[in-house]
Amino acid sequence: DKSDCLRCEKWRNELLKTSPLVIFMSENLMKSGMTFDQDNMPCMKCDEMRSGGFSSDGVIQLCYNNLFSKGHLETTIAHEMVHAYDQANFNLDWYNLEHHACTEIRAASLSGDCTWFQELLRGNVGFLKHHQACVKRRAALSVKSNPNCKSDKHAEAAVNKVFKSCFTDTRPFDEIY
């Protein structure tokens, strides 16, 4: 347990200094008035099956017991930083399912969550429009946990309603990473 936490902290600190993706997001978050460093990115043990989380008070939680590689941590940090960027730049209401769906679509698409390799590791292999299918699936999975979400269908409907506009919004990137 302690060694997993120490490994998470070591990887996090290295990624903050060396990952082009994490550095790019950090720079864009600073322009938006948010700074992320080891003080507001704690490595912690999580009960749920998730690798990280973002809380509206500006903290990114990193779940050391659910991280299987430094690359996985990099994707997790980038995913949560997209949520932070959205909160800093858009009037995000986390209890509004369409807002929640939009930030999850953007985070899944822009963080590297849905690369072919990540999907291969999950056992999801397909070729046609696979990136979009992965983004929709992962966004709906997150929206399902929203207290205002009544069912799987409700989550999928929220994702489908905002998918096109949110998927094509790649800010702060010029295009999908």
Question: How would you characterize the overall build of this protein?
Answer:
By secondary structure, the protein is mainly α. The protein contains seven helices and three strands. The chain has a three-stranded mixed beta sheet. β2 and β3 form a beta hairpin.
Poorly predicted runs are none
Indicate the percent of residues in helices. Answer: 55-70%
Q: pLDDT average, as an integer? A: 91
The chain-level structural class is: mainly alpha
Summarize the structure.
This protein has about 180 residues and is mostly helical. Helix content is about 55%, strand content about 5%. Strands 1-3-2 form a three-stranded mixed beta sheet.
Structural features:
177 residues; mainly alpha; 7 helices; 6% strand; globular
Structural topology:
Layout: H1 2-18, H2 20-31, E1 43-44, E2 52-55, E3 59-63, H3 70-89, H4 97-110, H5 116-122, H6 130-143, H7 152-167
Parallel strand pairs: 1-3
Antiparallel strand pairs: 2-3
Helix pairs in contact: 1-2, 1-3, 2-3, 3-4, 4-6, 4-7, 6-7
